[in-house]
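About this split. The held-out portion is used to measure sequence recovery: a designer receives only the structure tokens and must propose an amino acid at every position. Recovery is the fraction of positions where the proposal matches the reference. Here is one held-out target exactly as it appears in the evaluation file.
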């Protein structure tokens, strides 16, 4: 599967092909909201999953077809919003849209293996 990674300092996007889910997990664990902010799995106009953020707070979005998007929505709805940096664009996200590392890894692992959203996780359009 094609992976795209983003390095902010210096700003260097990169693409790699991999068949190793452990490599995907390693790249997601490396996200730090500073130098490394995004890992995407797949390609435009095809199934694609993006994990942004780091340091325990992640935004996970995905599309099965390049047209309709869903976001992982596993957090509490009554919590405070969180500022998360993805691709050099810090933004505030409602608490229910902020995933833990374990949730982000589970979503990425399933997507990598099946090319689809993990039905055991909660997704919102």
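Reference sequence for scoring:
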């Amino acid at each position: 599967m094609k992976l795209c990674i983003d390095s902010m300092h210096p700003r260097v996007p990169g693409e790699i092909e991999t068949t190793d889910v452990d490599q995907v997990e390693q790249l997601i664990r490396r996200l730090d909201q500073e130098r490394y902010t995004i890992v995407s799995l797949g390609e435009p106009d095809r199934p694609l999953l993006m994990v942004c953020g780091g340091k325990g707070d992640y935004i996970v979005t995905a599309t099965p077809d390049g047209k309709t998007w869903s976001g992982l929505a596993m957090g509490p709805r009554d919590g405070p919003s969180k500022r998360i940096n993805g691709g050099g664009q810090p933004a505030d996200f409602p608490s229910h849209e902020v995933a833990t590392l374990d949730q982000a890894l589970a979503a990425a692992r399933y997507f990598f293996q099946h090319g689809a959203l993990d039905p055991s996780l909660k997704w919102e359009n």
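Annotator remark: The CA atoms of residues 42 and 48 lie 4 Å apart.
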